[in-house]
Amino acid sequence: MTQPSDTPMVDVRSVHKSFGSLPVLKGVDLHVGRGEVTVVIGPSGSGKSTLLRTINHLEKVDAGRITVDGSLIGYRRSGDKLHELPEREVLKQRTRIGFVFQNFNLFPHLTVLENLVEAPVSALKRPRRAAERAARELLERVGLADKAGTYPRQLSGGQQQRVAIARALALEPRLLLFDEPTSALDPELVGEVLDVIKDLARQGTTMIVVTHEIGFAREVADTVVFMDDGRVVEQGAPADVLDRPRHDRTRAFLSKVL
Ligand SMILES: Nc1ncnc2c1ncn2[C@@H]1O[C@H](COP(=O)(O)OP(=O)(O)OP(=O)(O)O)[C@@H](O)[C@H]1O
To answer: Which of 148, 158, 165, 190 gives a 20 to 30 Å CA spacing to 115?
Structure first.
């Protein structure tokens, strides 16, 4: 069901998460509007990846709640109580939230085309012919139309990541999550992946991008979120957070990465 346009695409409220005795998210709030790009920056270990992973329930929260497009992620409400959804329902929710990993995570034994076709056929029950047609269009969009029959190992890292983005798009997600999509790439390959993400931003794709690419954040983000030690320290327009940070911790971080 399509939600009214004033429902945020992502609404994270007071999320807490620990791994054993290590608190990693200490009450995180995040709101992402439809068609907006949010870039999350922050030092190593500040909880950025964990936050992304809670949004599609790859990690369960200890407290707080997350809705995507109006649906509670991982749980169903019954009266005052939350009940965890069965795995099948979680997988269904996940198909609508694309996730692009640092290390591409392509299926090595499948061709590029098969990588894009597998999930729409198995999870969305699309007819194979239609899924292949859509996959070829997506490969065209990421500039890899001529690579349909090749295997991931035959591609550069940048090309593999573009395939991974096309694969995420093949499920027609309402939201795309990127976890440091360029940090495993040789420097000369970073630009081609960022260009694909910039293109998606221009087309109004709702995205949360965890990255250390501050130039990209400045150019593309509607909102920049600075996380430190499991908390959102500061968030706002790129010009405010990156050029006029209000917090010492943001300033200290930026002075190291800029
Ligand atoms: N599955 C896990 N089990 C135990 N500890 C974990 C797990 N996942 C993450 N952590 C710990 O949680 C903390 C936050 O990790 P997270 O990956 O979310 O940070 P990050 O800000 O994304 O860092 P980076 O920029 O280095 O990727 C780290 O101390 C990490 O070691």
So the answer is: 190
